[in-house]
Amino acid sequence: MNSVRSLERALAYEIERQTKALDNDESIVQETRHWDEDAGATRSMRSKEEAFDYRYFPEPDIPPLEPRPAWIEEIRATLPELPRARRTRYVDELGVKRDTVRVLVADRASVELFEGVIALGGDPGAAANWVTQDVAALRNAGGSGSLTPRHVADLIARVADGTVSTAGAKQVLEDAFSSGDAVDDVIDRSGLRQVSDESALGSLADAVIDENPDAVEKFRGGKEGVIGFLVGQLMQKAAGAANPKIAQELLRERLQG
């Protein structure tokens, strides 16, 4: 190679080539390879089956080193989990989607946040999605927020139990990211807590049915899509605070009863 730049390009090419080979369970053979400057790739020239093919000779001033197995294991125990092992663990043990894992493991801050969330009992799949999507977007926007694993874990729990909608949760996350306030405090302050009380929503469902006889008739005639319109009407009456899942259930009970 005739320049340091060529050396850099050749090394980058070999890193990519050998990584792909190992990922595909292919073996790496000992060989001498030629760097093709025009093609930007290496080509096999000749194989090197044994060490003596390289005509190595011992360095007389450096004696052989034989580290103790216990010392090797002690060092190995201090090494961090390597990215490939981490990706495998997240997919196989935690059930996170492979594409999401690739994005997650590529960023140390995201990994630390994700690990903290699941340590608090957060669902791994939901945690990975929040960390790699909404949290990443806030960070990429240049914000210097004080988001903690507790924020994300609480947010996942509040979405799961219906306290806040997914859309509302995104607003809560943005507020918590900038303010550092607890998730429940942000939900209450922003008025994003969903109404799930069936008695309160039941009266609204009755009103929606009474006010929309044409839509009711269409639904009972087999047009399932009309339920979305009726849920929307109920949500308007509740100023957007109704739990849409419970709202739909209550409407269906009354329409099919």
Notes on the structure:
Helices cover 61% and strands 5% of the residues. With 257 residues, it is mainly alpha-helical. It folds into 3 domains: 4-54, no CATH class; 83-190, no CATH class; 198-256, Orthogonal Bundle (Arc Repressor Mutant, subunit A). A two-stranded antiparallel sheet has the order 1-2. Strand 1 (31-36) and strand 2 (41-47) form a beta hairpin. The chain is elongated. It starts with a helix and ends with a helix. The mean pLDDT is 89.
What's the rounded overall pLDDT mean?
89
| Large-scale geometry | elongated
Helical residues, percent = 55-70%
Strand order of the largest sheet: 1-2
- Counting structural domains, the number is 3
Q: Rg to the nearest angstrom? A: 30 Å
Low-pLDDT ranges: none
User: What's the number of extended β-strand segments?
Assistant: 2
Structural class: mainly alpha
Percent strand: 5-15%
Query: What does the largest sheet look like?
Result: 2 strands, antiparallel
Number of helices: 13
Gap from first CA to last CA: 82 Å
Structural topology:
Blueprint: H1 4-23, E1 31-36, E2 41-47, H2 69-78, H3 83-92, H4 98-105, H5 108-119, H6 124-140, H7 149-160, H8 166-179, H9 183-190, H10 198-211, H11 213-220, H12 226-237, H13 244-256
Antiparallel strand pairs: 1-2
Helix pairs in contact: 3-4, 4-6, 5-6, 5-7, 7-8, 8-9, 10-12, 10-13, 11-12, 12-13
Which features does this protein show?
two-stranded antiparallel sheet, 3 domains, Arc Repressor Mutant, subunit A, 257 residues, 13 helices, single chain, 2 strands, mainly alpha
Short structural description:
With 257 residues, the chain is mostly helical. It is built from 13 helices and two strands.
